Amino acid sequence: MQKYQEEARLAALCQLKLLDTPASESFDRITRMASQIFNLPIAAVSLTDRDRQWFKSRVGIDHCSIPREKAPCAQVAETTEPLVIEDFAISPCYADSLLARAGTRFYAGAPLVTSDGYGLGSLCVLGTEPRQVTQSEIAALTDLAAMVMAQIELQHAFGRIDPVSGLATQTQFRDDLLDLARDHPSERRFAVVVDLARDDELSQFRQAMGGARVDDMIREASLALQTALQPARTAYQVGAAQLAFLSPPNVEQDAYLSLLRSTFGAIRAVSSVRFVTSVAIGVRPFTLGDVSADDVLRGACSAAQDARREDGAIAVFSAANDMAHRRRYRLLQDFGAALEADDQLRLVYQPRLDLATGRCTSVEALLRWRHPNLGDVSPGEFIPIVERTSLARATTQWVLDAALDELAEWQRSGSSLNLSINISATNFGEADLVERIQLGLLQRRLRPERLEIELTESAIMDQPDRALVMLHQLAETGVCLAIDDFGTGQSSLAYLQRLPAHVVKIDQAFVRSLLSGDSSDAVLVETMVDLAHKLGFRVVAEGIETQQAAALLARMGCEEGQGYLFSRPLESAALVAWLAEQDAASAASIKAA
Ligand code: C2E
Ligand code: MG
Ligand code: MG
């Protein structure tokens, strides 16, 4: 056998990862049948390694391997032909072999051949007496050898072929990329990930139509993709609803993107997938050998997410977006631990002042997170990530508990300060939210009016009907309700009128624009204040940074204000000191008057 052929044969054998694996009943069963059919005591599945015959399965033999030198199984592997030695004693090749010396007189072996034509070894039977074979015995041995191969290939395919789509798996993608990088280093390619549906679409679809229809959809998409790629290129399934493939080598990016657009346009036009899900495609350019398979896939998936967010069908990988995805993912991963740790989360409190008297009557609790490695992370960054997940419930509970503990502490020290907390849209879905708030108040003997719940206008408008029900329930308990970031949520007048809220907090952006010099900005804010009053709300302006803005807002009739002008959000101890200072100042001014 030529050397390079033998190397390829050995590589095929190695790839199957069979050598030196434990015995397995699925092979032993076949070996036993071979021994019974021939009525011989010895049978084996014998694999031809570089210099040994290794037995994956054996009956009647004690050792696991014999040297390859002069082993008849090696000849079967090399020729991929059956071999019968009726009597070792008169065989020119094998009379002086190890087997002959050990008393073997008879051998029959059928080759184990892969679908690529490589001979891996032999399924063999051996006897201690010379013997002849019939045609039907050889046919049976050949059939059994085919069964061994089917078993080997089945085991190998396990984990490499997705059972639903029939496409190659991510494991196969990794191996194929390694092979490509070895054979074509430095070649430019594009990895393409086709994300068939958003997670929520998939679960809605599963709920409505059942898992079998989801499988049908994935099968249909896989078939369409495989057909578009033609058999020359492989499509992979790399996630529950994510398919992937590689571009041909060295294609030009713009031309390739427009090819992808037209191909997927055509697939979409004929597929039923388009009726129920939105498909997003991510493209990751890379050089073979430079980037690991996992990074290639992750990059393409990250681009697919970009495509989704940008409402486009296709996006090319961007390192900057990818960094942001990774950071978001990391924050989400780590926030669960932060909720359990006792030194990462804390509340700070920002005073809210009566604009007419300058007195502080309430404070807003704002969450702070000190990440053990990343340092301070602002709620503007982590709240939007966390509040869309199941962590929203635990987060609000943490804030509620910490805030009510603090409020109870103030009550004990004789302060009548009120406190507001922020909750998220996801919290509306919690059937027991109202009870949890009531319980928290009861446990600490706090009157409900001391607590205010802030909800952004856009969170309310996310699920207006549900919000209305929840807000009515909350209002009935006696807690105050505030509409936060008012002016940004596009609620209608008719809807606002039905909201049982007490307060609106005009968003900082409007307050900031007051001093822009454009008089229409001031008219807008004044109109908002009037409107809020007519609807029966008390008005708080957020983000007041200058005396001028405070004075203007007071003239417009805005009752309260919050902002850096009065105070930044303060740690609990600093708040106590700040309040004492305020009291001292107002006592001094009363005295002076
Ligand atoms: P928000 O509820 O509208 O809170 C007001 C934000 O404006 C706070 O930012 C506050 O520090 C900031 N701010 C106050 N006065 C001024 C000012 O004069 N100038 C400027 N430039 N900013 C001012 P923060 O603490 O970073 O919070 C950002 C947002 O994160 C909050 O907006 C709120 O929507 C959310 N958030 C904070 N804590 C929580 C929480 O415990 N739960 C929930 N669900 N959301 C929270
Ligand atoms: Mg707020
Ligand atoms: Mg706000």
UniProtKB/TrEMBL annotation:
- Protein name from the UniProt record: EAL domain, c-di-GMP-specific phosphodiesterase class I (Or its enzymatically inactive variant)
Q: Which GO terms describe its molecular function?
A: cyclic-guanylate-specific phosphodiesterase activity
User: Which Gene3D superfamilies does UniProt cross-reference here?
Assistant: 3.30.450.40, 3.30.70.270, EAL domain
For this protein, the record's InterPro entries field holds: Cyclic-di-GMP_PDE-like, EAL_dom, EAL_sf, GAF, GAF-like_dom_sf, Nucleotide_cyclase, Rev_trsase/Diguanyl_cyclase
- Which CDD domains does this entry report, sorted A to Z? EAL
* PROSITE patterns with a match to the protein in the record: EAL
Q: Which residues form the EAL domain?
A: 328-583
Q: What's a Pfam family this protein contains?
A: GAF
